[in-house]
Amino acid sequence: MADVDPGKLRFGPEIMARLEQLGSISHDRGALSRHFLTPEHKAAGELIKSWMEEAGMQARFDAIGNVVGRYEGLRPGLPTVLTGSHFDTVRDAGKYDGMLGVVTPISCVKALHEVGGHLPFAIEVIGFADEEGVRFNSTLLGSRAVAGTFDPMLLDKTDAEGITMAEALHRFGLDPARVREAAHNPENVLGYVEIHIEQGPVLLNEGLPVGVVTSIAGANRFVVRVEGQAGHAGTVPMDHRQDAATAAAEMLLFIEKRCQGIESLVGTVGVLKVPNGATNVIPGVA
Ligand SMILES: [Zn+2]
User: Where are the beta strands (DSSP E) in the chain?
Assistant: First the structure.
Protein backbone atom coordinates (compact mmCIF):
# COMPACT_ATOMS: atom_id res chain seq x y z
CA MET A 1 0.00 0.00 0.00
CA ALA A 2 1.26 3.48 -0.85
CA ASP A 3 1.96 5.88 1.98
CA VAL A 4 -0.86 8.30 2.56
CA ASP A 5 0.15 11.87 3.30
CA PRO A 6 -1.65 12.75 6.54
CA GLY A 7 -2.27 16.21 5.07
CA LYS A 8 -4.42 14.59 2.41
CA LEU A 9 -6.57 13.01 5.10
CA ARG A 10 -7.78 16.36 6.33
CA PHE A 11 -11.08 16.13 4.57
CA GLY A 12 -13.10 17.75 7.32
CA PRO A 13 -14.19 20.81 5.31
CA GLU A 14 -15.18 18.64 2.33
CA ILE A 15 -17.20 16.32 4.56
CA MET A 16 -18.96 19.22 6.27
CA ALA A 17 -19.74 20.93 2.94
CA ARG A 18 -21.16 17.73 1.50
CA LEU A 19 -23.34 17.20 4.55
CA GLU A 20 -24.76 20.68 3.99
CA GLN A 21 -25.37 19.86 0.34
CA LEU A 22 -27.13 16.58 1.12
CA GLY A 23 -29.05 18.24 3.91
CA SER A 24 -30.58 20.66 1.41
CA ILE A 25 -32.24 17.88 -0.63
CA SER A 26 -35.59 17.70 1.08
CA HIS A 27 -39.24 17.14 0.35
CA ASP A 28 -40.26 19.79 2.89
CA ARG A 29 -39.14 23.38 2.78
CA GLY A 30 -37.37 24.58 5.89
CA ALA A 31 -37.02 21.08 7.33
CA LEU A 32 -35.08 18.02 6.17
CA SER A 33 -37.40 15.18 5.15
CA ARG A 34 -36.25 12.64 2.59
CA HIS A 35 -37.98 9.35 2.21
CA PHE A 36 -37.58 6.07 0.38
CA LEU A 37 -38.13 5.94 -3.40
CA THR A 38 -38.98 9.62 -3.77
CA PRO A 39 -37.47 12.14 -6.20
CA GLU A 40 -35.38 13.45 -3.27
CA HIS A 41 -34.02 9.94 -2.66
CA LYS A 42 -33.04 9.81 -6.33
CA ALA A 43 -31.42 13.25 -6.31
CA ALA A 44 -29.45 12.60 -3.12
CA GLY A 45 -28.42 9.18 -4.42
CA GLU A 46 -27.17 10.65 -7.71
CA LEU A 47 -25.11 13.19 -5.79
CA ILE A 48 -23.58 10.49 -3.57
CA LYS A 49 -22.90 8.39 -6.65
CA SER A 50 -21.04 11.27 -8.31
CA TRP A 51 -18.86 11.72 -5.20
CA MET A 52 -18.10 7.99 -5.20
CA GLU A 53 -17.06 8.10 -8.84
CA GLU A 54 -14.84 11.11 -8.18
CA ALA A 55 -13.20 9.09 -5.39
CA GLY A 56 -12.27 6.34 -7.86
CA MET A 57 -15.14 3.98 -7.11
CA GLN A 58 -17.45 2.05 -9.42
CA ALA A 59 -20.83 3.31 -8.26
CA ARG A 60 -24.42 2.23 -8.93
CA PHE A 61 -27.92 2.11 -7.54
CA ASP A 62 -28.62 -1.45 -6.42
CA ALA A 63 -31.92 -3.31 -6.74
CA ILE A 64 -33.56 -1.67 -3.69
CA GLY A 65 -32.26 1.85 -4.40
CA ASN A 66 -29.15 1.82 -2.19
CA VAL A 67 -26.13 3.56 -3.68
CA VAL A 68 -23.15 1.24 -3.71
CA GLY A 69 -19.60 2.34 -4.51
CA ARG A 70 -16.81 -0.20 -4.84
CA TYR A 71 -13.09 0.48 -4.59
CA GLU A 72 -11.03 -2.53 -5.52
CA GLY A 73 -8.17 -3.84 -3.41
CA LEU A 74 -4.71 -4.81 -4.61
CA ARG A 75 -6.40 -6.84 -7.33
CA PRO A 76 -10.00 -6.93 -8.52
CA GLY A 77 -12.53 -9.19 -6.86
CA LEU A 78 -10.97 -9.45 -3.38
CA PRO A 79 -13.19 -9.98 -0.31
CA THR A 80 -14.80 -6.79 0.82
CA VAL A 81 -15.14 -4.59 3.86
CA LEU A 82 -18.54 -2.92 3.80
CA THR A 83 -19.15 0.47 5.33
CA GLY A 84 -21.84 3.08 4.98
CA SER A 85 -25.00 4.36 6.58
CA HIS A 86 -28.46 5.53 5.62
CA PHE A 87 -29.33 8.63 3.63
CA ASP A 88 -33.07 8.59 4.16
CA THR A 89 -34.33 10.68 7.05
CA VAL A 90 -37.13 10.96 9.55
CA ARG A 91 -39.42 14.01 9.26
CA ASP A 92 -37.62 17.24 10.19
CA ALA A 93 -34.34 15.40 10.57
CA GLY A 94 -30.80 16.41 11.48
CA LYS A 95 -28.37 16.62 8.58
CA TYR A 96 -25.71 14.40 10.18
CA ASP A 97 -27.86 11.41 11.05
CA GLY A 98 -26.85 8.66 8.64
CA MET A 99 -25.23 10.89 6.07
CA LEU A 100 -22.00 11.30 8.08
CA GLY A 101 -21.43 7.57 7.66
CA VAL A 102 -21.90 7.79 3.89
CA VAL A 103 -19.89 10.92 3.20
CA THR A 104 -16.89 10.23 5.48
CA PRO A 105 -15.77 6.91 3.99
CA ILE A 106 -16.09 8.37 0.48
CA SER A 107 -13.50 11.00 1.46
CA CYS A 108 -11.31 8.28 3.01
CA VAL A 109 -11.40 6.30 -0.23
CA LYS A 110 -10.69 9.48 -2.15
CA ALA A 111 -7.55 10.04 -0.05
CA LEU A 112 -6.43 6.53 -0.91
CA HIS A 113 -7.31 6.94 -4.58
CA GLU A 114 -5.37 10.20 -4.87
CA VAL A 115 -2.14 8.41 -4.00
CA GLY A 116 -3.01 5.28 -5.96
CA GLY A 117 -3.32 3.28 -2.76
CA HIS A 118 -5.03 -0.09 -2.59
CA LEU A 119 -5.66 -2.31 0.40
CA PRO A 120 -5.48 -6.11 0.65
CA PHE A 121 -9.29 -6.08 0.43
CA ALA A 122 -11.94 -4.19 -1.48
CA ILE A 123 -14.05 -1.47 0.13
CA GLU A 124 -17.71 -0.91 -0.59
CA VAL A 125 -19.40 2.22 0.66
CA ILE A 126 -23.16 1.83 0.82
CA GLY A 127 -25.68 4.64 1.13
CA PHE A 128 -28.72 2.82 2.45
CA ALA A 129 -31.94 3.95 0.83
CA ASP A 130 -34.16 3.24 3.80
CA GLU A 131 -33.34 2.86 7.44
CA GLU A 132 -35.96 4.98 9.13
CA GLY A 133 -38.94 3.31 7.49
CA VAL A 134 -41.03 6.49 7.34
CA ARG A 135 -42.77 5.89 4.03
CA PHE A 136 -43.81 2.25 4.35
CA ASN A 137 -43.75 1.97 8.12
CA SER A 138 -41.14 -0.77 7.93
CA THR A 139 -37.54 -0.03 8.89
CA LEU A 140 -34.12 -1.06 7.53
CA LEU A 141 -35.33 -1.94 4.03
CA GLY A 142 -31.97 -1.05 2.45
CA SER A 143 -29.79 -3.11 4.76
CA ARG A 144 -32.25 -5.99 4.80
CA ALA A 145 -31.90 -6.25 1.03
CA VAL A 146 -28.10 -6.21 1.31
CA ALA A 147 -28.17 -8.86 4.05
CA GLY A 148 -30.47 -11.04 1.96
CA THR A 149 -33.26 -10.94 4.55
CA PHE A 150 -35.72 -8.77 2.62
CA ASP A 151 -39.16 -10.38 2.78
CA PRO A 152 -40.90 -10.06 -0.64
CA MET A 153 -44.23 -9.77 1.22
CA LEU A 154 -43.10 -6.21 2.05
CA LEU A 155 -43.58 -5.25 -1.60
CA ASP A 156 -47.34 -5.16 -0.99
CA LYS A 157 -47.06 -2.60 1.80
CA THR A 158 -48.59 0.76 0.95
CA ASP A 159 -47.62 4.31 1.79
CA ALA A 160 -50.00 7.03 3.00
CA GLU A 161 -51.23 7.54 -0.57
CA GLY A 162 -51.95 3.87 -1.12
CA ILE A 163 -48.95 3.32 -3.42
CA THR A 164 -47.42 -0.12 -2.94
CA MET A 165 -43.69 -0.54 -2.47
CA ALA A 166 -43.61 -2.57 -5.69
CA GLU A 167 -45.19 0.34 -7.58
CA ALA A 168 -42.84 2.84 -5.94
CA LEU A 169 -39.85 0.73 -7.00
CA HIS A 170 -41.21 0.72 -10.56
CA ARG A 171 -41.59 4.49 -10.56
CA PHE A 172 -38.05 4.81 -9.24
CA GLY A 173 -36.84 2.75 -12.20
CA LEU A 174 -36.28 -0.51 -10.35
CA ASP A 175 -37.78 -3.97 -10.82
CA PRO A 176 -39.45 -5.30 -7.64
CA ALA A 177 -38.90 -8.88 -8.84
CA ARG A 178 -35.15 -8.33 -8.64
CA VAL A 179 -34.77 -6.95 -5.11
CA ARG A 180 -32.95 -10.10 -4.02
CA GLU A 181 -30.10 -9.15 -6.37
CA ALA A 182 -29.10 -6.49 -3.84
CA ALA A 183 -27.98 -9.23 -1.44
CA HIS A 184 -24.26 -9.67 -0.85
CA ASN A 185 -22.72 -13.11 -0.69
CA PRO A 186 -21.55 -13.43 2.94
CA GLU A 187 -18.50 -15.39 1.79
CA ASN A 188 -17.17 -12.25 0.10
CA VAL A 189 -17.82 -9.94 3.05
CA LEU A 190 -15.07 -9.50 5.64
CA GLY A 191 -17.10 -7.26 7.90
CA TYR A 192 -19.20 -4.18 8.22
CA VAL A 193 -18.23 -0.93 9.93
CA GLU A 194 -20.42 2.14 10.28
CA ILE A 195 -19.65 5.67 11.33
CA HIS A 196 -22.65 7.30 12.96
CA ILE A 197 -23.21 10.37 15.07
CA GLU A 198 -23.96 9.69 18.68
CA GLN A 199 -27.63 10.32 19.32
CA GLY A 200 -27.26 10.32 23.08
CA PRO A 201 -25.42 12.58 25.53
CA VAL A 202 -22.58 10.29 26.70
CA LEU A 203 -19.66 11.48 24.55
CA LEU A 204 -20.64 15.10 25.02
CA ASN A 205 -20.82 14.73 28.78
CA GLU A 206 -17.51 12.86 28.92
CA GLY A 207 -15.79 15.30 26.56
CA LEU A 208 -14.81 12.49 24.18
CA PRO A 209 -14.52 12.97 20.40
CA VAL A 210 -15.43 9.43 19.41
CA GLY A 211 -16.61 6.17 20.86
CA VAL A 212 -16.22 2.65 19.51
CA VAL A 213 -19.30 0.60 20.13
CA THR A 214 -19.34 -3.16 20.35
CA SER A 215 -23.07 -3.64 19.93
CA ILE A 216 -26.21 -1.74 19.06
CA ALA A 217 -29.55 -1.55 20.82
CA GLY A 218 -31.82 -4.32 19.62
CA ALA A 219 -35.35 -3.01 19.88
CA ASN A 220 -38.51 -4.88 20.75
CA ARG A 221 -41.67 -2.85 20.29
CA PHE A 222 -45.05 -3.55 21.85
CA VAL A 223 -48.48 -2.02 21.75
CA VAL A 224 -50.21 -2.73 25.07
CA ARG A 225 -53.92 -2.23 25.71
CA VAL A 226 -54.87 -1.83 29.36
CA GLU A 227 -58.56 -2.36 30.07
CA GLY A 228 -60.26 -1.11 33.20
CA GLN A 229 -63.74 0.20 33.77
CA ALA A 230 -64.96 3.63 32.76
CA GLY A 231 -66.94 5.49 35.38
CA HIS A 232 -68.02 8.88 36.66
CA ALA A 233 -65.10 10.76 38.17
CA GLY A 234 -67.26 12.37 40.83
CA THR A 235 -69.32 9.45 42.06
CA VAL A 236 -67.21 6.26 41.90
CA PRO A 237 -65.27 5.91 45.18
CA MET A 238 -61.55 5.26 44.87
CA ASP A 239 -61.71 1.71 46.16
CA HIS A 240 -64.31 0.80 43.53
CA ARG A 241 -62.25 1.95 40.57
CA GLN A 242 -60.46 0.14 37.80
CA ASP A 243 -58.67 3.11 36.25
CA ALA A 244 -56.87 2.00 33.09
CA ALA A 245 -54.68 5.14 32.95
CA THR A 246 -53.31 4.79 36.48
CA ALA A 247 -52.65 1.11 35.79
CA ALA A 248 -50.70 2.11 32.69
CA ALA A 249 -48.79 4.67 34.76
CA GLU A 250 -47.76 1.95 37.20
CA MET A 251 -46.49 -0.11 34.28
CA LEU A 252 -44.40 2.85 33.09
CA LEU A 253 -42.83 3.26 36.49
CA PHE A 254 -42.11 -0.44 36.64
CA ILE A 255 -40.39 -0.31 33.24
CA GLU A 256 -38.27 2.61 34.42
CA LYS A 257 -37.24 0.77 37.58
CA ARG A 258 -36.52 -2.48 35.74
CA CYS A 259 -34.27 -0.78 33.18
CA GLN A 260 -32.35 1.24 35.75
CA GLY A 261 -31.14 -2.01 37.28
CA ILE A 262 -29.20 -3.28 34.28
CA GLU A 263 -26.42 -1.47 32.47
CA SER A 264 -27.20 -0.74 28.81
CA LEU A 265 -30.81 -1.91 29.15
CA VAL A 266 -33.19 0.87 28.15
CA GLY A 267 -36.95 1.04 28.04
CA THR A 268 -39.26 3.73 26.75
CA VAL A 269 -42.96 4.26 26.57
CA GLY A 270 -43.23 6.82 23.81
CA VAL A 271 -46.97 6.87 23.22
CA LEU A 272 -49.72 7.04 25.80
CA LYS A 273 -53.34 7.24 24.78
CA VAL A 274 -56.56 7.40 26.75
CA PRO A 275 -59.17 7.04 24.02
CA ASN A 276 -62.13 9.38 24.44
CA GLY A 277 -60.55 10.68 27.64
CA ALA A 278 -62.37 13.42 29.52
CA THR A 279 -61.65 15.20 32.77
CA ASN A 280 -64.78 13.86 34.49
CA VAL A 281 -64.49 10.25 33.27
CA ILE A 282 -62.41 7.49 34.86
CA PRO A 283 -60.38 6.04 31.97
CA GLY A 284 -61.74 2.68 30.89
CA VAL A 285 -58.95 1.98 28.39
CA ALA A 286 -55.35 3.10 27.99
ZN1 LIG B 1 -29.20 7.11 11.78
Answer: 58-61, 67-71, 80-86, 122-128, 189-193, 231-232, 281-282
